[in-house]
Amino acid sequence: MPSTFDTVAKIISETCDIPRETIKPESHAINDLGIDSLDFLDIAFAIDKAFGIKMPLEQWTQEVNDGKATTEQYFQLNNLCTRIDELVAAKGA
Amino acid sequence: MRIEYFQLIDRIVDLDLAGQTIRTEARVPTASTIFEGHFPGYPLMPGVLLIEAMAQTSGWLVIGVTRFTRMPFFAALKEAKLRSFVTPGQTLALSAKLLHEGSGYAVTKADIRCDNKLICNAELTFRLVEFPNAEFRASMEKMAAILEFPMGALAHG
């Protein structure tokens, strides 16, 4: 079974036409991979479907805009994958 | 259909919140300045306006599913197929199904039929945001009434 990161990296690679080998756990989706907000909607759709979750993007964005969180907390891929795992676990709880 | 006012559907025929589907209808006007240019001597409903009609149909579905708490803005279009010409005076049956309601976005699949024949179809993505201001929200509620949007379904759906 692929890891959460492998699944997310594959989605990003296929959605944004980014070579898979350039996508690292420490990559920042926006700053390093250059993914814009519209492409991120496609990625979010694919992630939501793949994991059967609803990533709380509105809440995350609000927290970043309010200075309560950094973009790294949600959009650096290893952190994003941790959030996804938490959402999957919460769904099964 | 009031093309010049960008009102591309006439009526909401059915809004099924449980099934997350909507059906609307629209009649293409027999005359419009748009047909003078598209095309002289051969008037056709522009494909981009058929896509907008699918977006408006999908948009009312999203407004229903989100209980009028979010305004959908058309953001992306995929797999759009314009299969047949649409001419002045034709009546269109539009439908949309919600594929996914995400946080801050929604994805639908929509199509248009004329005399049961599939005219066009596409997958559409919307950004969902809070209504920017009270005036805008009021204008959408007014339009909802014109289109016979079933407000009662929001309370019971």
Structural description of this entry:
The complex is a heterodimer of chains A (93) and B (157). Chain A has helices spanning 4-16, 37-51, 57-65, 71-75, 77-92. With 93 residues, chain A is mainly α. In chain A, 24% of the residues are buried. Chain B has 157 residues and is an alpha+beta fold. Helices cover 27% and strands 38% of the residues of chain B. Chain B has helices spanning 33-37, 47-65, 134-146, 151-156, and strands at residues 11-16, 21-27, 71-82, 91-101, 105-114, 117-129. In chain B, a hairpin with a 2-residue loop joins strand 5 and strand 6 (117-129). Chain B is globular, with a radius of gyration of 15 Å. The two termini of chain B are 28 Å apart. The mean pLDDT of chain B is 95. Chain A binds chain B through residues 38, 41-42, 44-45, 48-49, 54-59, 61, and chain B through 75-76, 100-105, 107, 125, 127.
The gist of it:
Chain A is mostly helical. Chain A is built from five helices and no strands. Chain B is of the alpha+beta class and 157 residues long.
Helix-strand layout with pairing:
The complex is a heterodimer of chains A (93) and B (157).
Chain A: H1 4-16, H2 37-51, H3 57-65, H4 71-75, H5 77-92
Helix pairs in contact in A: 1-2, 1-5
Chain B: E1 11-16, E2 21-27, H1 33-37, H2 47-65, E3 71-82, E4 91-101, E5 105-114, E6 117-129, H3 134-146, H4 151-156
Antiparallel strand pairs in B: 1-2, 2-4, 3-6, 4-5, 5-6
Largest beta-sheet details of chain A: none
Helix-strand makeup class of chain B:
alpha+beta
| Total beta strand runs of chain B | 6
Helix fraction bin of chain A: 55-70%
How far the N terminus sits from the C terminus of chain A, by CA atoms, comes to 21 Å
Rg of chain B computed from alpha carbons, rounded to a whole number of angstroms: 15 Å
List unreliable stretches of 5+ residues of chain A. none
Number of helices of chain A: 5
Give helix % range of chain B: 25-40%
Find the count of extended strands of chain A (DSSP E, 2+ residues).
Answer: 0
**What's the mean pLDDT score of chain B?**
95
% residues in beta strands of chain B: 35-45%
Mean pLDDT of chain A: 94
Largest interface pair: A-B, 14 and 11 residues
Instruction: Give me the number of helical elements of chain B.
Output: 4
Oligomer: heterodimer
> Which residues of chain B sit in consecutive blocks of at least 5 with pLDDT less than 50?
none
Order of helices and strands of chain A: HHHHH
Structural class of chain A: mainly alpha
